[in-house]
Amino acid sequence: xxxxxxxxxxxxxxxxxxxxxxxxxxxxxxxxxxxxxxxxxxxxxxxxxxxxxxxxxxxxxxxxxxxxxxxxxxxxxxxxxxxxxxxxxxxxxxxxxxxxxxxxxxxxxxxxxxxxxxxxxxxxxxxxxxxxxxxxxxxxxxxxxxxxxxxxxxxxxxxxxxxxxxxxxxxxxxxxxxxxxxxxxxxxxxxxxxxxxxxxxxxxxxxxxxxxxxxxxxxxxxxxxxxxxxxxxxxxxxxxxxxxxxxxxxxxxxxxxxxxxxxxxxxxxxxxxxxxxxxxxxxxxxxxxxxxxxxxxxxxxxxxxxxxxxxxxxxxxxxxxxxxxxxxxxxxxxxxxxxxxxxxxxxxxxxxxxxxxxxxxxxxxxxxxxxxxxxxxxxxxxxxxxxxxxxxxxxxxxxxxxxxxxxxxxxxxxxxxxxxxxxxxxxxxxxxxxxxxxxxxxxxxxxxxxxxxxxxxxxxxxxxxxxxxxxxxxxxxxxxxxxxxxxxxxxxxxxxxxxxxxxxxxxxxxxxxxxxxxxxxxxxxxxxxxxxxxxxxxxxxxxxxxxxxxxxxxxxxxxxxxxxxxxxxxxxxxxxxxxxxxxxxx
Length: 586
Ligand SMILES: Nc1nc2c(ncn2[C@@H]2O[C@H](COP(=O)(O)OP(=O)(O)OP(=O)(O)O)[C@@H](O)[C@H]2O)c(=O)[nH]1
Ligand SMILES: [Mg+2]
Fold this sequence. Notes:
The chain is α/β, with parallel strands linked by helices.
């Protein structure tokens, strides 16, 4: 008893892990929005998840064995023959005869697991405690799916198959190869493991014995093997009517022979299926085969796309890398336009660091430069892109500086770079898109907005790195050109003249000799001349040590290094999905 309970718990655990695997697959497929096969596979996963949920609900309830088949194939007659009651499910000439699910079980509460899923006019339960050999299962007859009433019947059959553990597919032996029916069933049989599928070719009494054994059955076996993804556990020819209590044969249509495999079918149901605990094993087996079927379908689709997908991703990577190289190279040319801004910003760095009289002059000169170039207002903004656009617009004398700022705000910090980047992609994309379409992607991949780095992202990214590099380079140059020794050296002449003038003034003052105005005027001009000379000398040093070209060269090499391993591919949804599909192929 304890062992039995543990076994059931383990089985429930395994069912849950099967469910989690299928859910994972469904989630992955849900992310593949542009890959066309994903939608169908996702739908199959959802149907499987629903079936598993129902399976978990009735996990330790009785096994559900369902008879399905086309109109008039003899489902109701077979149910009656198996149940030993000719009037259980009405069978007759009027087509269709069965318009609802007919369930046969030993106790009425056995069918509770079905009742919640059907309306009162969709199911009829027959409980007989005399149900011999069927005590551990529920036997179900279903309406057809190919008569004029099929619109109403199909949803009922769909529901009952979802609640079934074993399917007995009944075919009319006089016309078994019905493509419409086998195709309809193909979608359902794949939800079952082969061991849960039985094919019964009924009315075999109507066919000649030799034709039946030599032609019809072997040909039908081949036909089913081709039409269905799962091979049934058994294929039996039966004559259901012969096993009714009263077959009531027409004198003109008596059986042509007595060869049929009804006993085998009865044995399979009564002995193999009708075992306590068999339902748990069967359900688990169905769940496992459902999972393998779905996984295999996904792998198969992914493998079918493999070749084109790998060609597409290789070309995508090569084209993106070329586009990026060209963008970076073009950025070098674009960067030159920003040179006047660089000069001013370097002086700003120095003005913050320099002390003493030369430092004051540096500060004054910076102000003059800023106002002189008309970018004062723009330099106050924090956004480096705006700063750059301001600098560029000031230099290019754009009619409307606002336009340039707007352009910078929208990421057009590097128009030339963008142009080069887009040009490479525009050249390569049509071929890549065709490969992707061949790999199953939607035709919308041909649209320009699907390309990697589309829009202004790349330009924005490059501008940002450029500005960071520029910022770092300027502050490094500023630090280098503001060393204590340098400041002392350039301030020393002015401070020396100032100190000397001060000393003379003080000494004369204390010896009561008042100096003339000419002395001070002379001293003032000496200081001014020395100060300006020192400042000019400093400017020469700045120009030598941190020329515009030199700074730009260094900023550009920083940019190139930063962009070396940068790729916009990981952000591209197509690339992400292509990589996910590549991961699905095994
Ligand atoms: N000769 C012969 N006739 C059969 C056999 N089984 C069923 N029939 C006849 O075939 C006809 C249809 O049988 P049903 O059992 O009503 O068929 P069904 O598949 O339930 O039909 P629907 O409920 O309308 O889908 C009836 O006249 C049965 O007597 C059989 O094994 N041999
Ligand atoms: Mg019927």
